[in-house]
Design goal:
The chain has 418 residues and is α+β, with helices and mostly antiparallel strands. The chain has a domain of 291 residues: Jelly Rolls (Sandwich), CATH 2.60.120. Helices cover 21% and strands 16% of the residues. The chain is built from seven helices and 14 strands. Strands 1, 2, 3, 4, 6, 9, 11, 12, 13 and 14 form a ten-stranded mixed beta sheet that branches. Strands 5-10-7-8 form a four-stranded antiparallel beta sheet. It starts with 41 loop residues before the first strand and ends with a strand.
């Protein structure tokens, strides 16, 4: 399956004339000499979120702990009564007739068309019902209330930052794909399935401190010198901080090591999930960074807003294009990869909260300032080395990292090699 040249969702990294892509006015370099430097404690940023335009994107959780199963093309034909494909809301004339019909039709019809969405929805519906139940089960009743719909913004921090947004980054400044390929010992990430490299070998490369050091530094530099300044600039432009004091300290808690997804041709589908059902805070915003071409059935699928279920794939012809979206609430999944290209991508999370001060004791500042509450900052991954943090003071243009030392991958961190 190839690219649709007429698709408005397909964005080529490097198309600097596209006004619908977020980009800072200046991208931080690795070092003054052009070499790849280690993480620094003081990180400056420049840029503006002016001109940011909402766009449709797609991603998925990517945790190794995510349930993996048979192809979605066969799931709805399971003998399990709980996953029956015949829905009462579908008329006999629109019900999928056979597994072979679905397999052939999904490959032949255009991705994103009404017919494609119809066939995909019929296959997904039994599993979406389960995903909806799980998502509601993990909602915070103190923040949402049982009567509020899943799309409600009540108790949800920084709602203005949760719309799906693509952004470009400079692959010369942040050569994530190149360094990851070197770390894994492969020549071309998109052809990794053709190389004699098994999952155990890939994991051993990432678990070896010396082998992963260059990639870990590159990732941390990318997050702290590009992604966090971009997100901070967007927050300021959207007036996401309800804070009166210009000296308030804002903390960005980010995943210290990314989830790495390798989706080979023939890879099984993933069940629809959202990050809150895997133990992450509702305060987490998701970053999805494809390092290879992402198209057709090797791409990721999501909804553009919680509960909307307007499933769409994220497609990009090359690296240098990333995506920010509400992964904590939006369901996302992948279908069976019937393409001949492996998709390699990074997935990580960021949450934002205000530094507490002694002023809080006498009530001179707003409680949470529209950011994560104390309870929302704590999730199942708090503690250990899963998260790292960088702090910025409003009115200043520099992030300060909590620690100059890179955190070792947490034992709860999984590598997803599909």
């Amino acid at each position: 399956m190839g690219f649709d040249p007429n698709s408005s969702r397909d964005v080529r990294a490097g198309d600097t004339h596209d006004s619908n892509i977020d980009r800072p006015s200046k991208i931080a370099s690795w070092g003054s000499s052009g070499s790849r430097s280690s993480s620094v404690s003081s990180l400056s940023f420049e840029g503006s979120a002016d001109g940011i335009v909402d766009a449709t994107i797609i991603t998925r959780n990517g945790l190794g702990g995510m349930a993996r199963t048979k192809s979605l093309r066969s799931l709805c034909y399971s003998s399990d009564n709980t996953t029956t494909c015949m829905m009462s809301s579908l008329s006999p004339t629109t019900t999928v007739q056979s597994k072979e019909f679905v397999h052939n039709r999904l490959d032949q019809i255009q991705v994103g068309s009404q017919e494609y969405e119809s066939v995909l929805r019929k296959m997904m519906e039994p599993h979406l019902r389960k995903a909806r139940i799980l998502r509601n089960r993990f909602r915070d009743p103190s923040s949402f209330g049982a009567a509020n719909p899943i799309a409600s913004s009540l108790g949800v921090p920084y709602t203005a930052l949760r719309k799906e947004r693509p952004f470009l980054f400079d692959e010369q400044t942040h050569p994530l794909g190149e360094i990851l390929a070197d770390t894994l010992g492969v020549d071309d990430l998109s052809r990794i399935h053709e190389m004699n490299v098994d999952d155990a070998t890939l994991r051993s490369s990432l678990l070896n401190p010396a082998r992963r050091a260059a990639f870990h530094k590159a990732y941390d530099c990318f997050v702290t010198t590009f992604c966090l300044p971009l997100l901070h600039s967007l927050a300021i432009s959207k007036q996401a901080f309800h804070i009166k004091s210009s000296s308030a300290r804002i903390t960005y808690r980010y995943q210290a090591f990314p989830t790495i997804d390798i989706v080979r041709p023939g890879a099984s589908a993933t069940l629809p999930v959202c990050d809150t059902t895997t133990g992450h805070s509702i305060g987490c915003l998701a970053f999805h960074i494809p390092l290879t071409a992402s198209f057709g059935t090797n791409a990721l699928y999501t909804e553009s807003y919680p509960g909307r279920e307007d499933w769409h794939p994220l497609r990009t012809k090359s690296g240098g294009l990333g995506f920010l979206f509400d992964g904590s609430r939006c369901l996302h999944f992948s279908v069976e990869n019937t393409s001949n290209v492996s998709r390699v991508s990074l997935y990580f999370r960021v949450m934002i909260y205000r530094e507490r001060s002694w002023y809080d004791d006498i009530g001179n500042e707003d409680d949470d300032a529209g950011l994560c509450s104390v309870a929302q900052v704590r999730d199942s991954y708090t503690g250990g080395t899963y998260y790292d943090e960088a702090v910025i003071e409003l009115g200043r243009s520099a992030f300060i990292k909590r620690s100059e030392r890179l955190q070792d991958p947490d034992k709860r961190q999984a590598f997803s090699f599909v």
